[in-house]
Amino acid sequence: MSAAYIFDVEGTLIDCVAEILQCWSETLAGFGVPVRSMDLQRLSGMDGDEMLAILAPELDEHARKDIVTAQGERYRAVYLPRVQAFPGVRAVFTAIKSQGGRIALATDCQADELKRYRSLINVDDLIDAIACGDDVSRGKPDPALVERALDHLGAPAAFATMIGDTPFDAQAARSAGVNAWGTLTGGHARSSLIDAGCSVVAPSVADFGQHFGLEKRPVSKVRAYQH
């Protein structure tokens, strides 16, 4: 059976982490909830409600929902039009397909945000399946998105690799029984990605091209994840 590759989008394929963090900071300030930038970065990529429960435990479920909704509205209005794709995405996807691999996107973002991202990365003709935040009730590190992507691909976990930029991508992948690779484009430390279960860490998605026959770029291999 051909290998399957499941890609996170925000911070992995799209250069938007700084914009997302700035949006969270502004939104939280508007609700009178001061949070340090370093704490937002540390939990970047986690399900929004779960992140707020950790950063502001005094907030009840209703308050967290209001903040998550406000952050999403602000991001779509102010920041989404500004973001750009990382270079080299199409080349890597094309190389995967040339070797018979299958590709899915698994992202916490909503469908309207994903539509914008897809227009930037220009790989719709190479994607076999998509799972986004509209499809599940909880984001990463919950494995539901990865499991949904596997279902859409019709691929067993043993043949799949999840590629993301945060420890929460890796945790979701490992919980779903999927191999995890990480990129440094989300601002998380290499050690955090390794500790979360990444068996390979690279500076960016483009640097994974050597695994699929593209020109070699420096990639740092790390110890295999141990259960």
Provide an overview of this structure.
This protein has helices spanning 17-30, 37-42, 48-55, 61-79, 89-98, 111-121, 144-153, 167-175, 190-196, and strands spanning 4-7, 14-15, 84-85, 102-106, 129-131, 160-164, 179-183, 200-202, 220-221. The chain is an alpha/beta fold. It folds into 2 domains: 4-15 and 84-221, HAD superfamily/HAD-like (Rossmann fold), CATH 3.40.50.1000; 17-82, DNA polymerase, domain 1 (Orthogonal Bundle). A 7-stranded mixed beta sheet has the order 5-4-1-6-7-8-9, with helices on both faces. Strand 4 (102-106), helix 6 and strand 5 (129-131) form a beta-alpha-beta unit. The radius of gyration is 17 Å and the shape is globular. The protein starts with a strand and ends in a 6-residue tail after the last strand.
What would you say about this model in short?
The chain has helices spanning about 15-30, 35-40, 50-55, 60-80, 90-100, 110-120, 145-155, 165-175, 190-195, and strands at about 5, 15, 85, 100-105, 130, 160-165, 180-185, 200, 220. The chain is α/β, with parallel strands linked by helices and about 230 residues long.
